[in-house]
Amino acid sequence: MNPTSPFDASARTWDQDPVKLARAQAVADGIRNQVPRQPRALDYGCGTGLLGFALQSHCDHMTLADSSAGMLAVLDEKITASGATRLRSTRLDLVNDPLPPERYELICTLMTFHHIADTDKLLRDMHALLASSGYLCVADLDAEDGSFHGPEFDGHQGFEREALQRQAEAAGFRDVSFTTVFNMQKGTGPQQTEFPIFLMVARK
Ligand SMILES: C[S@@+](CC[C@H](N)C(=O)[O-])C[C@H]1O[C@@H](n2cnc3c(N)ncnc32)[C@H](O)[C@@H]1O
Fold first, then answer.
1. Residue ranges making up the domain that contains 176
2. CATH number, domain containing residue 20
3. Considering its fold, how many domains does the chain have in total?
4. Does residue 3 sit within a domain?
5. pLDDT in tens, 102-143
6. Whose CA is nearest to atom 18 of ligand 1?
7. Ligand 1 pocket, residue 50 CB under 6 Å
8. Phi-psi map region of 123: left, alpha, beta (phi>0 left; psi -120 to 50 alpha)
């Protein structure tokens, strides 16, 4: 029996937000511009698979992994409905599960890092999951003041790029670079705040 996830409840309506679709498309474009096509890819914290679907032609096979059964149920319906042959889903929680045996030439992850407390361990796990010279692509929020999620949120308030680069290098990554791939806006008028989304690309 899988534990419930706070994301289960939002899975059914996740794809109705055009900003989430545009964000995934922008990140997929950024990855395509910086990383050559690869045989095996993993989208970790895939949700309903927005990034994986946008990036599927950039690999031979992609595993879409998430800890939320609700997200995976929606994803499975989308894979079946689209007839996508390169995509498969799996339940994976690197915080609690042992490292799976599969290896990948590309690991991508969008807006998931800030939900994982121990990002040093996550980076080490991703390094271990990559095949030799594989690529890691992390897209997430730049450091922010906590207003993205509000006061109840206990995850990371985005990331300082230089600190994340040092973490990635300590986990064994090299050639770490950052670009800004998307800007999210929240609020309206004078209350409107911009939340830039970075794409970090690194090599094993
Ligand atoms: C903000 S959503 C992003 C979903 C998707 N990448 C997107 O951009 O549409 C974060 C995702 O990370 C997943 N997640 C959170 N903690 C996780 C963990 N420990 N292992 C795997 N997935 C996790 C959630 O279930 C959720 O689907």
1. 8-203
2. 3.40.50.150
3. 1
4. no
5. 999 999 999 999 999 999 999 999 999 999 999 999 999 999
6. 93
7. yes
8. alpha
